[in-house]
Design brief:
Helix content is about 45%, strand content about 15%. By secondary structure, it is of the alpha/beta class. The longest helix is centred in the C-terminal third of the chain and has 33 residues. Bound molecules: adenosine-5'-diphosphate-glucose.
Amino acid sequence: ELAPLATELRGRLRDLEDEYRRSQGPEAEWTAERLRALLRTQLSGDQVIVVSNREPYIHERGEGGIVVKRPASGLVTAVEPVMRACSGTWIAHGSGSADQAVVDARDRVAVPPGHEDYWLRRVWLTPEEEQGYYYGFANEGMWPLCHVAHVRPVFRESDWEAYRAVNQRFADAVVAEARSDDPVVLVQDYHFALLPAMVREKLPQATILTFWHIPWPNPESFGICPWRREILQGMLGSTILGFHTRYHCKNFLETVDRYLEARIEHEHSTIAFRDKETLVESYPISIAWPDAGHAGWQPVADCRRHVVERLGLPAQACIAVGVDRFDYTKGILERLNAVERLLEKHPEMVGRFVFVQVAAPTRGALDEYKSFQQRVEQTAGRINQRFGKPDYQPVHLLARHHEPDAVNELFRAADICVVTSLHDGMNLVCKEFVAARDDLAGVLVLSRFAGAAREMPEALIVNPYHVEETADALHRAATMPAAEQRERMASLRSTVREFNVYRWAGRMLADAGRWRLRARIEARVRRFQADETAPHA
Ligand code: ADQ
């Protein structure tokens, strides 16, 4: 009786193994098309629902009417190409002033504008909910807790209550959007630690993939959270729990071992908790590699000319750039101190070396962020006063959001890109810089505390807390011969091209496909066994 089932399974397993081998091999190129094919074969058209706090498109009321904006967010940068490849529904907080004006009766709008590849379903939050859940628990509690960046986490009972309530509201939205009892739900980030278990309760058959975009600390650091057990239990509602690096996975397994009664299989990297198993795996996130032809890209020389003119830089300037959200974990102050030290140590650089920092305002309602921004502005002012001349300013601080094309132009105009995060899950800016440099010029200075450092050893790797070392790396970058730049850049480009965002999503979804297959086999075998043992009439 099991013969037809066995034949079907053998076929499916062969497909999966082929796909798995291809996905592991260095020859395998991951593209949007291959991801789409994987969704068709392994998830056979199953519904995909993404949940994140930040929405990929924000509708704002401007002077000339409604305008659509893209937020500065690594998560959105990474997940958007995946959603475009697989359609489905993206559930997120509707935060724009015109967001309500453009949705349908079910709070949905098709995006991207003009393409309409997938649905964006907006969840509305009251100012109190946003204060407690987003600014409070997520960004004053979880963010510093996980980054261990010497800013004390703040835990308030009322924030925790709001966090729990908002997680429940988003979980309810997932259940309302689900068209079957086993959708594939992609949960994004530290805003939703409790949501996986909440969805699991209502949809026990769902495949829940949770991706944690920020670091996971060691058990001692995590242990200061008053609700550490609840958070871990919530996350273990996931089928698969993804982090950027093996190191973060190891920290998570050790944290569960310390605080919960769970069975951990280190060999398979699984955790069994209350009869449910969760796979804990590393999936290094990345970017979509630009299409050949790069529609709309200006030649590097033109980009440079535009930037020099726009900012009034010396024509022969050595241009270093930093592109970040205005966040204390990104090491912007440490970077400025290194620029100052460089100018001190190498007076010949004064008048020639220019550092352009683009910093998108973020979480501005929090005091920690306001005072951080002030300190950065003061430091930039001090350096400019010390080394500036009537026609030369060493530091240009552009504290505003830039559209992706403007960021790309800056990357192409730059001689050096500086990423000095004090701690970063991955960091996509360094990958975007490398992708922008099809001329093979430019040097990347990269913090060893960014997840990306593990994949990009050809960058000049620095400890951002060590001002002297970072200043020396800036000098080395500014004086690096073109041949060495080309060699390093070519190698970095082949890594980022191969380990792109489609591989990130593809590996995770392939693991989900295998997991679903296993669950279906087990269910069928159980049904078969039940039929066998049932008393026959
Ligand atoms: P973020 O902390 O947001 O992401 P990052 O990975 O560097 O950090 O991504 C930032 C994105 O915003 C990039 O696409 C960048 O181009 C864009 N951006 C930054 N400043 C900007 C500006 N001024 N104007 C316009 N765009 C700007 C979190 C984690 C990271 C992880 C990502 C993805 O903290 O470690 O890499 O998620 O998982």
